[in-house]
Design a protein that fits this description.
It contains five helices and two strands; from the N terminus they run ααααββα. The protein has helices at residues 2-11, 19-29, 34-39, 44-56, 79-96, and strands at residues 64-67, 70-74. It has a two-stranded antiparallel ribbon. A hairpin with a 2-residue loop joins strand 1 and strand 2 (70-74). The protein starts with a helix and ends with a helix. The relative contact order is 0.07. The model has no long low-confidence stretch (mean pLDDT 92).
Amino acid sequence: MVEQIYSGNHEQNQPLSEWAFLLAAAERAGVTGAKECLESDQEAAEVRAKIQKHIDMGINAVPVVVINDRKPIHGAPDHDLLAQAFAEEITAMRAAL
């Protein structure tokens, strides 16, 4: 399913908000129950909570990198910035042990 959605969205410019696209992707991937899932409120509360969490973190655009749900790095970070962020995270995790 992930491959179908990625290909459709990134290679064919299909909008993820179009149910017809999502249902066709599910069918190609052999996923059953997609229509029922889209028509239900299943997972809606969890999705809204995740959206709010990221809004509260100050995320309002992409790209953004978030490591372990902590301070987001906005924009497309270069290698040095990512290396530093991961090193700081590793140090913090080791200190917490």
